[in-house]
Every structure is written in C-alpha cells, then in structure tokens.
Write a structure and sequence with these properties.
By secondary structure, the protein is mainly β.
Length: 976
Amino acid sequence: MKKSLLTLLFLLTAFVSNAQTPYNLDKISGLSSTTASVAYSLRQLSTSYTGPLVRIKIGSSFYDVYPDVSTTKFSLSSKISAAIGTYDAAVATAGSNALSTIVSGSTDATVAIWYDQSGNGVHVLRSNPNAKIITAGSINTIFGQPTIYFSGSNSSLGSSTTVDYSAQSGATVNAVAQNIATTSGYAGIIGTGATPITYPGYNISYSSPSSGYGSDGHNGFYSTSLTSTDPKIVTNIFINNTTNLSKIYVNKELKTNVAGTSNTYSVYHTSGSKIFIGVSRQLASTSTFIGNISEAILFPSQLSDAVRNSLETNQSQTYLGPSVTITSSASGAVCAGTSVTFTATTYNFSGTPTYQWYKNSVAINGANSATYSTSSLTSTDVISVSCSDASSIVSDASLSLWLDAANGTTISGNTWSDLSGKGKHATLSSDQSYSSGDGGTIQFNGGQNPVSMPLVSNKTTDITMQTWVYLDANTKGPFFKNGYNNGYVFGSGNGGNGFEVGNKATMLFAGTRWIQATNTSYGYGWKLVTMVINSSGVPSMYINDSLVPGTYTGTSASVPTTGTYLGRNVGDDDANWPKFNGKMGAAYFYTKALTLAEITQNFNATAARYGVSSSNSITSNAITTTISPAPSASITVLGDGCINKTTLSTPTGLTSYLWYKDNAPISGATSNTYSPTTAGDYKVQVTSGSCSTMSAATTIAVCGVTADGRMSVLSSSTTLVSKEGEINNRNGVDDRGLILIKPYATTPTGTNPVTDGLILYLDATRSASYSGTGPTWSDLSTQINTATLTGDPSYTASPASLTFAANKYALTSTSVNSISTATFIAWVNPSQTQVTYTGVIFSRSPNSGATAPATGLNFYANNSIGYSWNDSPNTWSWNSGLQPTVEAWSMIAVTISSTSATAYLFNASNPTGLSSTNTVSHASLTGLKFYIGADPLDLNTRAFKGKMGTAMVYSNALTQAAITSIFNAQKAAFGL
C-alpha cells in the first residue's frame, strides 16, 4: 500500500501539466477562457492564483513576495512572508510587513523561485540565485514596470518538476524581454528542454550578433534578424511537437512565416522535459541570456489571432505603453510639518507629458509639474499623479475665436486678445477681473456687464462653442452667447427654462425655444462645456468629452447679429435675470460642428491645467507617507509673569528641550523648566524622537521688582504693580505712591493658554509682534506668517492696537495650504456701526495668493458678528445677532467644524460670553491668505473701521472653554 501511494505521488509530481486544472489567465483582458501550461510574471495573471509572485534572497534569508494589493504587481508595497531559511522550502504565507521594511538604499535582491501562476505548479528556481530583481534598493524596471535582470552565467532558473508535452499538437510561447548585452548565439529566454537529450523544445531565444529574436532548434536557429536593446514582446507559434516555428511576432508584428518550408528545424519533447528561463537547454553553460525578462508564458496550443492579439495588446499597454511612477523624498516616517517632495518619472510618452497630482484621489490645485512638494501631509494621505501626452487644441481654419486667460499673457488692461488670428478681441468690464489661480482665469461677479466682442459668426448651422468654467453650488447664469436678442446661448440652470442657481446643463435658441433644460448635472469643479449645432441645425451639448443625452427637435436658431458675449444672455434678458458668477479659463468658437474626437482633443489638451484627468491620462502608483505627530509645545506660567519671580514649564517626558528668548536660543536652557531673569518673549522648542515643535511666545515683564522681590525705584510709571510687586490688573501704585485707577501704559496680553492648532497670531500689544512703527506685523505662531500693513494704519499705545479704515489693512505673507476646521478670534473696538459687510480676518479669491472663495470672520451691516466659508450662501447669509458695543473693547470669535459654526462675543458686559450657532456643513478648503481689517472684494467699502488689538486663526474648532480661557488671559491688556 505504501509503495502504491508513493508511486501515485511521483506521478502527480512528474506530470503536473495533466494532474491539475489550470487557471484561466483572466486578469488579462481577452484571456478569461484561456489556460497556460506555465505562466511566470511579476504581476498577477489569474484571479484563481493567490500565491506569491517570486521568492527572493536578501543576504542569507529568503522571502516570498505577494502581489501588491493595489496594483497586483511586484512592488515595495507588496506583502512578504517571514524570513525563510532555505531556497526550496514550502511556500510561506504573507505577513503584515511590506517589502519596503527590509529594503534600504544598499539592498540587492535576487530571485530564488519564480512561481508558476498557471495552476500547474511548475516553478523555476535556483539554489544560488543570481538573477537580480532589486539593485541598490530600487526595483529593476522596464519602462517603470518590474523586471528581472539575468546577467548570463549562473543566473538562469529551471524547474525541478518535469513536464510532458510529447503528445501536444503544437504550442505558443510568449515573453516580454529586453536584450541588454547577450553574446551567445543560442541564448534562451524561455523554453522547454528534454532530458537527458540536450536539444531544446518549445522556446524563445536570442542570437547574437545578427540573428536576434527567434527560436532555437536542432541544427539551426530560426531568426527574425531583429537585434535590439529595446524591450520587445515576442510570440513564437509552433506547428506541432517536433517541428520548429510556424510564425514569429515581435511587438504584434508578424516577422516570418515558415510553415511548410524547408527551413524548419527539429524540437524535442519527452516525458522528462523541464522549463528553463534565461538559458537554452542546448548549451546550458554558455547559451545564457543577458537582459531583462518580465513575463514568460507557454500555452499548450497555437493561439488564435484574436487571443494572441488580446495578450500582446495587454502586454504592450502594460510594459511598452506610456507609464509613470512616483517616488518620495521621505524615507520612513517623517515629522508633521516636514516638507516632502514627490517626483514623477515618465516612460514612453511621445513628448513632454502634462501632470496633475492628487491627494486622496482629489486633484491638487496648481500641482501640474513633474514634482510636488507639501508640508501638510497626514498619515492617511495618499499621493499619486496622472500624466498624459501634451497636445494642442483643434486649430484649423474653422477656429474663429480663441480666448485663453493662461498666465494673463493675453490680457492687457480690459482687452482679452483673440488668439485665433480673426481679430475678435474681447473687452472686459468692471464685473470681471483676472486671477492667476488655475494657471490664469477670469472671475465673473454676477454683475450686469458681460465680456463683449464683435459678432464671431452669423451662422445657425455647423458651429461649435466651448468654454472652460468652474462650477460650484452657487454658480448660475449663461456662459457663452452668440448674437444680441437672438442666436444661441448655453449655461447653468436649475432644470427649468432659466439660468438660475443650479447645476443643470441648459441651452437656448434665444427668442425661439429652450432646447435643453434637463436634469443632467454638470457636477462641480472645472468643466469643458460644448454646444454644437450640426449641418441640419440640430443642437447637442457635451460635458468634458461626454455627450449630454437628449433629442432636440423644433424651430431652428435665429440668425445672430450685433455681437458675441460671455457671462450674460444679452438682449434676451433684463436686469433681474441671472448673470454668470463663476470662473472662466478659456472660450473657443468654431465655424464647424466638432466631432467627438475633436472635442476630446480640446479637452485632453487643457485638462491638466484645470486639475482634471484627461481621457488619455496614465495614473501612477500611489504613496502613503507615514507621519509622526509633532509634540505639543505649551508653556505654563508658574508665578506672576515677572522676572525673578516666575518659572516657565512645559510637560516632561519628551526627548529634549531648548528655551529661546526673543527668538534666540538660551545657552544651557535644556530642561523642561526655565526661570527668566530678564524681560522678553520666551519660547520653548520640544523634541519627541526626531520631531520638534516651537511653542508660542510668552512675555515676561520687569514689573518693578528687584532680584529679591522688593519694589525698585522707578523714575517713571511704566508698569502697574502692587506694593508687593505683583500684577494688579485694575489699579496700582506709581513711584509717588499714588493709586492709578486704570492702566495708562502699554500692557501686553497675558500668556495665550491655547497654542495647539494656532496658525496665525498677530498681537499689537506685544513688541515681538509689533514694535509700534513700520509696516511689519509679525506672527507669533510657529507658522511665521508675517502680515504687512498697507495704508499706514495708526498705532495707539494704550491699549496697544492698530486703527483700520478704508484702504488701511494688513495682508499675511503666505497661504494656508489646507484647512477643514478653524477658529477665528480678534479683539476689536469698532468706531462706528458698520454700514456694509466688513472683513475682520478674511480671505477671498481672487486676491494676492488666495485661491479659496470668500472665507473668514466678518461683521454685517449692523455690527453683527458673521462669517463666510467657501463663499457658501448658507454661511454669509447667516446672522448671529451678536453685536459688539461701539467705542468699547470686545473679543469676537467664530469656530467652524464640519457640521456647524458658532459665533462668540466677550466684553465687559458679557465676561462669560454669548454664543450663537449655525448648523450647516463645511467642506475642506485650500489656499487661504488673510486680510486683517478688510474684505478684499472692496478694500474701501468693506473695510473694518475701528481699532484691533489681536488677530488669531486656529486650524481646529476650539471649545467654548478654550475661547473663554483666551479671553481671561488677554482681557487685562484691553482694560477689562
């Protein structure tokens, strides 16, 4: 019984190709019903195969490497097994570690086993592997795709399991390979070899120096004479199991047909054949291939042209087509706030490609170069890039208008130049303005005055109008109109016969009929919108490169006259009809009906500029960077804030500490506590591991005391203290012994008790922020986002503040890249009831560097505290009802979370605070740049009028308790 069982096991091993049910190679389009005899690849070829791709050797250990979950390929993100002691041990299961955890910049890895994915289990292996898959920490690639480099002698792989192809009626052998420096005349890429007979069976070989790719046979090599060092897809089809080639295809092209000729050579198969990769069985010691092999498959029959074409097309797209990979400057975990640069490397594009970077599958505005750098990553952020071949718009003689705001180079004063050469230059009105965002755009404000130009065409058939527009929930109005009081127009509506606020695709034959008032939505973001009228006068509409469904019949358009317009349905509307209120990047007019292919060409030519993936874009691998959180850096004041009587402390348990005075490090101050002996602004830099954070500044004053705590003799009254030298917030004693009822000298705000999330802190009461003269208002947060005063706002020493008025404001120096929650806080003393919307801490595009729509803290016309977020009407139309007193100091605040916003008012009458909440959703924003004391929509009429002492912005929604603590810490500086 034991003998019979052993015999059975031997047979199962020896005749693997007949012993199991092979897998369909269904991961390759067109091969869902096709099986292989053996299939080796560095990508998953069959959904039925769930094992590793290869077993690699690093140092003295072996690891099984599984397909990357996201790409199904061999990558540094692939899961690996635990270390294996021998090259031929049983398959090891995948663990939780990625390949990257064992690969450094000096790591080389060789292939010990290349696993067969056919289901037949004919793996090729080597006990002393030399075929290299990783060199100096980088995966070897062909056009960005993983490959194995065979270096000649002793680098080949062979099966220990034998196969029996002796009864087959032919075969197809396929490989993706790249000759690098082969010198042998019979170098094998993949093939069967009969043992102990030394002649080859079914195979693909390479012969140097002149025969190139072909097939090795007994007494002769059948060649294509195609010698090259470029990657190739080679397919050899065999007539039967004894005769050499029927056909050879290289990169899908038939190179020769030898069926029935006298030039065929013998091939050999026995029940004892084996599989060899990187070497010909005929002369195993010398017939070695020097180059890359990425995929090698042997099929048990002659593939049909349809199946072969599907296979080679897939391989061409995977290995030879355009591709892009990205790498990161970060190696391992990086500290929060560290700038990380991602670099794209492209392969096989016909020219210089366009780029669009993505974070979490959302296009990053303005990230359109070969590199992308950011310092605002979190550990969950996934970065990728898409690339496409650069192309140009359709520019034949039918192009009759070409307006493009790219980089502002076509805009001079109020003239927007026509690039078509037809001279239809456009005139901008006071209701449009240029913005540098998105590579250059025109912002329409919804006013009465359109962009106008001479009539482009009076045709009613065979025309195309296109425009790139940005759409959001507030967009309304017509985009593009040809003709005054007639003609045709398209824009955004609500699904009815109008251009009201709404996201529905809408067209009109002006004065004749609405031809498209459907429920088809544009979606939000940048869109290329196209209106086509064909030779029969039938209109159609496209969003990007997709046709809007619908059937259009009825009266034809009236003949356009007088002019062509952007932003208004001129002549067919009145002052109350909606006007366009969004962004426009370009507009085209053709005197022909563009085909879908031509519409797609225009879309692909400019999509990347607007952060949109073109239809021919290629997407890279994705990288998730591990971010180590920055340690919290807060200062606790133990004492009264005066020199010689105060100890500053920060939490223990961190790696290191370094204290600073007036932004200079203090020698030897490296513990978690420090006792100041001189007045100034103190900070502490804390380090946890390799990550450091700088705290906000805490001001320490002289307070009129000596080192032993006694009163010092003052020649003038500059600081209010009690007789014991302690801070007295409401009255004190001067050097004459007289009681002072209120502070009459500059008193800085107390220590800010909340520093987590603080991204802007301007404080006129602190000399480290404002010296009392000059245009620089320094940021005391860790972001160093200095503001520049414009219009010379006057400075008042007590309480220390700046007075803002029309055209008197401050503007921060850098943009906030991303924000999803926020808190805005300011100490204000209005000089009057505001007569219109006024900005307190406000950002709006277009202005110097801001790309997000209106966002920030503001007043309504009745001095009521308000806010805007992303210019949503659900925010700017909300009135809190909280009104600071005129000619009195108040601290105002607004917190924004994803689901609500809350306004706060603190002053002498309301020391515990009043609040009002707006329940509405708030999306994440990018590109905020803050004006202090103004809304940049109009720096004259929307200017805050009065004094302001502080302006603070947090990247989180503070609690009421936290805001109250800030009020209590700072109120003394404003006489409360």
